[in-house]
Amino acid sequence: MRYSGFKVIKEALTGHKGWKPAWRDPEPQAHYDIVIIGGGGHGLATAHYLASVYGQQRVAVIEKGWIGGGNVGRNTTIIRSNYLLDGNEPFYEFSLKLWEGLEQDLNYNAMVSQRGIMNLIHSDAQRDAFIRRGNAMILNGADAELLSEAQIRQEYPFLNFDDARFPIKGGLAQRRGGTVRHDAVAWGYARAADSRGVDIIQNCEVTGFRIENGKCLGVETSKGFIGAGRVGCAVAGNSNRLMAKAGMRLPIESHVLQAFVSEGLKPVLPGVITFGAGHFYVSQSDKGGLVFGGDIDGYNSYAQRGNLPVVEDVCEGGMAIMPMIGRARLLRMWGGIMDMSMDGSPIIDRTHIAGLYFNGGWCYGGFKATPASGYAFAHLLARDEPHETATAYRFDRFRTGHMIDEKGMGNQPNLH
Amino acid sequence: MTQKNRLAGGQLDRDTTLSFTFDGKNYSGHLGDTLASALLANNVRLMGRSFKYHRPRGPLTAGSEEPNAIVELRSGARQEPNTRATTAELFDGLSAKSQNRWPSLAFDAMAINDRFSNFLTAGFYYKTFMWPAAFWEKLYEPIIRKAAGLGSLSMQADPDEYDKGFRHCDLLIIGAGPAGLNAALTAGRTGAHVILADEDFRMGGRLNAETLAISDMAGADWAAQTVAELASLPNVRLMARTTVIGAFDHGIYGAVERISDHLAKAPRGKPRQILWRIYAKQTLLCAGATERPIAFDNNDRPGIMLAASLRAYANRWAATPAQRVAIFTNNDDGHRTAQDLHAKGVKIAGVIDTRPDAPRALDYEVLQGAHVTDTKGRLGLTFVEVACADGSTRTIECGALGVSGGWNPNVHLTCHQRGRPTWDDDLAAFVPGGTLPPGMVVAGAAQGIFSTHGALKSGADAARKALGLKGRAPAVPDAKDSPVIQTPFWYVEGCSRAWLDQQNDVTVKDVKLSHQEGFRSVEHLKRYTTLGMATDQGKTSNMGGLAIMAELAGKPIPEVGTTIFRPPYTPTAIGTLAGRMRGKEFHPTRLTPSHYWAEERGAVFVEVGNWLRAQWFPLPGETHWRQSVDREVTATRASVGVCDCTTLGKIDVQGTDAATFLNKVYCNGFAKLAVGKTRYGLMLREDGVAMDDGTAARLAEDQFVVTTTTANAAKVYQHMEFVRQCLMPDADVQLISTTEAWAQYAVAGPNSRRLLQRIVDPDHDISNEGFPFMACGNITVCGGLRARLFRISFSGELAFEIAVPARYGDALMRKLMAEGEEYDVTPYGTEALGVMRIEKGHAAGNELNGTTTALNLGMGRMVSKAKDSIGSKLSERPGLNEAKALMQIGLRPVRADDKVTAGGHLMNATGPVDAAHDQGYVTSAAFSPTLGCMIGLGFLKDGGNRTGETLRLVSPVTDLTVEVEVVSAHFVDPEGERVRA
Amino acid sequence: MIINHPLLGPRDSAEFVYLGAAELMNRPDPETASAEDWHGYAYLRDNPAGVHRELWFHEGGDRSILIVTRDTTTHEISAVELARKPRAQT
Asked: Which end of chain B offers a freer environment for a tag, N or C, measured as fewer CB atoms within 10 Å?
C-alpha cells in the first residue's frame, strides 16, 4: 500500500477502514539466507537495503522486544556529517545523502529536516580545530561554513553573548545537518523491508549461536532454531552481551547516555546548537519540545537510566549558553545504552567465525549513521566485502594501530 | 467582578482578597485559591485550547496531573509557559494568559483543525507531505512547526535566581496525605530524622478536599493539627511546595522546593526555587492516587472534570464550575461528589452510574446502568446525553459534569529505577510491585489502600517497618474504613470522538487505528499516537489507552504492560536544575597569582580551561592586539620578558622509588637523571599515543617536580595516580599536585640571568657555569624567601622559570618588574608565549592532540627501547609506524605577505585538491615578528624528508589557498645556542 | 550514586572519576607478554551485564583509587576496596 496525501484523504472519507498493518507479524521460517539480529534502526535499515539494493529475497530481522525499542527510539534525533577523520567523514556524508532521499525511498515521511547544525567556538584552539574539521568536511564533499561571532549574533540572538563564562567566538555550521523524527525511521525501514518480503520477527530473543567447525549455521532463539547462511548482529548497546554468546570479547563498553525533552514551546530554535564549552546540545522538535542532551554518565551501565549529576551538568550548560530557557520545564529524561568503543568509532566487519558479521560500537553517533550503517552492513552481508565508505571500521584496527579517534582520547571509552 | 460561583466554607482566607487578570480581564479571588479555583469561582470554565484540534478546554483536575488548564503565567522576562492553573497559587497582581490560540481564547482560528480531524488522525503525517520532495522543509514543516508548541518563552534571560542544596534524613516521606502525615507522626515521635515533602502548599492531601472525619474532627482539621505537632518536633522537617521529582541511585532523591512562585516577586536574596538532593536512608512513598476518567463522545468540554476534583474545588476552594452539575461514575466515590456538592447548595442534575445496582440517593436522581453518550456546549458544557438502562435517552442540562472511573495509585516514583508495577484485579489498577528502588516502601492510596483508615494505618505501619521499630503499634486515629472495589469501565462506545489524552488530542479512535496499523505494543501506541506524551505525561490518560489496547489485542491489561515512568514526576524548570551555575558562575574561575597585578597593567585576559590568563598587555597607543604581541616578543628576545606560567600543572613526586616511577610514566629515561638536573619528558598513553609533555626536575634523590601542560594537568595527575596505585602498588612513591601551591614565572631573554641575579640571594650561583641549561635547585630570593629555580626555556631564549609559594606570587611579579626596569623588562601574555614557542618549534596542545605519536612529533627516538614504560609496547604497532607517517614540520609562506592558517590542509603543489590527496594539516600558526612573516607548524606525510618542498595550504572553509614552503620547525636558533648562553 | 569509601565513609559518586574496568590493573608483563596479550589488555572488555569490578578515582577527595564492585544492571554496589592496599605499620 502506497502512502500519499491522496490516500490519507480517501481513507478519511471512508472511515479509515483501508489502513493495513505497516508490517506483517510472521512466524520465523526454518532457514533464511541472511538473519539480522536486532530490530533497531540499523538492523531494519540493513534489511531494507539487502532487499532493495542487493536483491536478497530471504531475509529475516529478529528482535527480542518490539522493533524500534532501542536507541533509535531514545535518541536526540540529530543528523550531520561533520567529522574530521578520513575513516569517518565519507561514511557519514554518505549517510547524510541517504537521509536526503529517505522519504521517497521508503514512501514514509520520517520528517528529515535539514535545519542546520551549529557547533559554537569558544577559544582560539577550538577555532583551529574546527577550521581543520570544516576543511576536512569540504574536502570530502560535505558542506561546512565557519561563522564569525557577528554572524552567530545575528542568527542566534538569544544566546548568551554578554554574560558568558566562555565567550562565543564563532561557530562551525553544517547547513545540511538537522533532525529526523526518530521513531519514524524504524517504522519506515520496517515497512519498506516488509513490503519486499523481509520477515520481521518481534519478541524473539536470541539465546545462542549454532557454530560448527568455525562456521555460524544460525541462531537459537526463544522461538526455536533459525538457520541462516549469514548472521548479522546489529544490537548496539547490547553488543558485548550478544557476542559473548559466540565467545567474543569486544573493544566496547556499555555506557548510559541521558537525554531530555522540555514541554512543548512555540518555535524558538532554528536548528541544532552545540555548546562547545559545556556538555550541552539542543534542537527543537516539530512538536515544540526542546530536545537536549550532554555527556554520558561515564560508568558502565545497562540500566537505561542515569543520575542527577549529569542532569544538572547538562542543564547548567543549557542555562550558561541560553539563559532564556530557565523557565521552560524539563518534561522527561531517559537513558539509552551506548556501545562505547575504544576509539569512539564504529565497527562493521566480519568476525573470526565464518558467516557471523558484526555491526556496533556506535557510541552516541548511531542514529545519524542509520542509513549508511544499514547500507554498508547490507553490502558486507551480501558481498562479503566492506562497503567503500566503511573500509576503516575493522575489528583489527586496534591490533594494527589504525584507530579512528576523532576526539583523541585513546582507549578509554567513556571519554569519547 | 463578583465571584458568582463561590460557595460557602473552604480553606480560604476570605479576609484577603486578591486581584488578578486572565487574558487581560480583571478578577478577584482569595488567599488559598489556585488560579483555576479562582477562575471557576468567577464562572470562568474556558482556560485553554488543546494541542492539535484547538478544542476549547477547562480544567480536568485540581492538581498536578492537569492536562488542559495550562497558561502562560506572569509577563516580561518572567513569562512562564505551560503553567498548570490548577497548581498555580493565586497572589495579588497575578497575570496569566491563555496559550496556543489566535486571536483569542474564545475564538481560535486554528480550531479549523477540529473540522478536519478526520484527516488528522494518529500518524497521518508519516503518510503524506512527501511530494514534491523539496516541499517538506520549505512549506509543510514550517506550517506544522508554527502551529505546534503550546506556550511561548519570553526569549529573555531568566531574571530569577535558583539554588541547590543537600539534605539528609533517616526517613523521607513523600506526600502529606493521611498516610504520609500519620507516618511522619509515627516516625517523628521516635526521634528519627524525618523529612516530609508534599507538592501542595497545604499539607493534608485529599483530607483537605474531603468532608471525611478523623477522630471526630474534620479531616482537614486533623491534618492541620498533625502538621502543627510535626512542626513542633525538631527532628522533623516539613517541606511543603516541594515536589520529589525523581528516585535516583542509592537513596538519592531529587526534590524541587518552590520558594517564591506563590509571591508576586521573590523576596530579596531568595531564589525562585531550590533543587534539593535528599539523601534518605529509607523512603516512604505516600503519593496518593489519581482519579481516572471514563471516555465518551465529546468528553472534553470545559466543565467536564474528574468527580473528585469537582469535589475538591467545592470543599477546599469553595468553588464550583457551575450551579447545576451532573455526575458520571462507575463507583461509589462519584456519589460522594454529588453528596458534597449537594450539601454546598449546588444543584445535582443527576448521577449517571454505569452499574445497574448503583446506590440510590434521596436528594437527587441516580440513573442506574446508564451512560453518558454525548455532550453539548461549544465553549462550555450545556447538556449531556444519557443512554438509560431501559434503552431510552435523556438530555440533562448541566454546566459541569464530574466523571469518575476509579482511582490509579501514583506508582510513578516506584518505577524510576525501571521496576514495573503489578496489576491488582480487585482495584483494576496497577499497584507498586516488582523491584522498587532500594529502601523504598509504599503506603496509603499509592499502595492501593484507598480507605482513610487504611491510609492512616498503612502509613504508620510502613514508617515503623522502615525504621525497624518493634513492639506494639500505637493506636490509629478513628476513620472510615470501607473496602474499595473498582470494576473497570473505560469508555462508552460511540460514533464520534472520545478523548483519552486531552492535551494531545488522542481519542479512542486513534488507539483503534494504531492497533489496526500494527502499532500494538504500548511503546508503539504511545509513539504513534503521542498518547501520554503531553505535559501531564499521561497521568490521567495512559490507563485508558492501555485498557483499549488490551481489549483490541484480546489480552489482559497486565500482559499489555505499561510504558516506562521517567523522572521528573512533574515538569521541572531547567533553571532549577542548573541552579547558580550560569553566567560567569557557570564554571569556577581560576586566577593566577599575578592576576591582580596584570589587571592593574591593563592586561587583556583569555579563558584557558577554567583559568583566566593574561593574553597580552597593551600599552597606550596600541590599537591592535598584534602591536602588543609583536612588541612583547621582540622585547623578550632582545632583552627580558616575564610570563606567568603558574597554570602549568605541577606534581611533586617523592619517595625512594620516585625515579623508577617516572621511568615508567615517561617514555624517555629518568632513572639516571642527576640531582639538580631537569629533563624534558614525553608521556604516552598506554595505546602509544602522546598524552602530554613537560619537564621533571630532580630536586633531591627522592624528590622530583613534574610539570604538565595547563590543559592536561588533571588528566596527567590522574594517570600518574593510576600507575602508582594500580600498576606499581609496592613502589615507595607519593604524589601531590602543587599547581596552586607555587607561583611560577618564566623569565626569558638574554637579560634574564641579570634580572634574576638581582633578586636571587647571593649565596646561590646562577651563572652559566654554576647553573647551566637544564639545571634546577632550591634557592632563596629577596633575602630568604624559599624558591625553586629551573633553567628551562619554552621561548628558545636564555630562560629560567622561578617558583615561589603562591602567596608571594604577586610580590615577586612586582619585584621582577621593579628590578627589571633597567632592562626594560616586558611582561608577556599567552599570545607572545605562543608565538615564541611556534618560532622555536615546540609542540603544544594543538600538536599534542591525542592522535599524534612520538614519531609524529619528531621524537620517535625518545621512546626508550631499553626499558618498559607506559605506551612503549603498543607504540610499536604498524599503524603507528608507517613508512610515510605524519611528521611535524615548519611552514613558511612562499609570498611573505600570505597568510598561514591553523586548521588548513596541505596539498601537493599540483594535482587534485580533495581528501584523497590530503598530505597533512597545519596545527599552529602565528605572525613571527622575528621573521617578519606568518609561520606555521603542522604535520606532513613523510615530513622529515620534504624540507624545501612547496605545497599548497588550502582552507576552503576560510576561503584560502596559499603556497607554503616546508622548513625546519625550529625557526629561531635551530642550534640551541641561546638557551645555553 | 554513593560509594562507601573504605577510609572516608559514604561519598557521592560525583566526587569520583571513573577510570574503567579493574582489569586495567592486570597490565601484561612486558618481558613475556605477546602482542595479543597487549591488545586484549588495552582494548577488549568483558563489559558484563551484572557484577562488574571497576576503578573509581577519588579526585575530589583523598585521591585514592577504589575498586568498586557494582552491578551494571541495577547500579547496586556490593563491595568497595582500595586499589593500593595500605602497608602494615612498621
From this structure: N
Q: Is B722 on the interface with C (CB under 8 A)?
A: yes
CA B352 to CA B335: how far, in whole Å?
10
Q: Please state which of the ranges B95-109, B120-134, B498-512, B871-885 shows the lowest mean pLDDT.
A: B120-134
* Domain architecture of chain C: domains with CATH: 2-82 (3.30.2270.10)
- The enclosing domain of B542 has a CATH number of 1.10.10.1100
Q: What is the pLDDT of residue B132?
A: 86
Q: CB–CB of B519/B526 below 8 Å? A: no
- Inter-chain contact B151–A265, Cβ cutoff 8 Å? yes
Whose CA is closest to A395, among A358, A370, A355, A354?
A: A358
Q: By residue range, what is the domain housing residue A266? A: 117-177+253-341
Domain final position from A292, A323, A341:
A341
CA A363 to CA A343: how far, in whole Å?
9
Longest dimension (CA), chain C: 43
Closest Cβ–Cβ partner in B250, B251, B722 for C65:
B722
C38 at B interface, C-beta within 8 A: yes
- Count: domains in chain A: 2
Structural domain includes residue B830? no
Name the pLDDT band for B750 (thresholds 50, 70, 90). very high
Contacts of B275 in chain A (CB under 8 A): 312
Residue ranges making up the domain that contains B349: 303-404
- Is residue B5 in some structural domain? yes
Print the SS3 string covering B387-404.
Answer: ECCCCCEEEEECCEEEEE
Q: Do A191 and A244 fall within a single domain?
A: yes
B267 shares its domain with B413: yes
pLDDT at residue B450 greater than cutoff 70: yes
Residue at a domain's end among B155, B187, B218: B155
How many CB atoms neighbour CB B211 within 10 A? 17
Instruction: Return the number of other C-beta atoms located less than 10 Å from residue B421's C-beta.
Output: 23
Write the ipTM: 0.98
Q: ∠ CA B534-B536-B542 to the nearest 5 degrees?
A: 80
Other Cβ atoms closer than 10 A to B235: 15
- B122 pLDDT higher than 70: yes
Mean pLDDT within B691-697: 97
Q: What is the mean pLDDT of residues B500-513?
A: 97
Q: What is the pLDDT of residue C88?
A: 62
Chain C interface disruption, residue of A299, A310, A402, A416, most C CBs within 10 A: A299
**Interstrand relation of B94-97 and B13-22 (parallel, antiparallel or unpaired):** parallel
Nearest CA in chain C to A254: C47
Q: Is B357 exposed, middle or buried (0-12, 13-18, 19+ CB in 10 A)?
A: exposed
- In this prediction, residue A266 carries a pLDDT of 96
Same domain, A151 and A245: no
B417, B687, B721: residue with CB nearest C57? B721
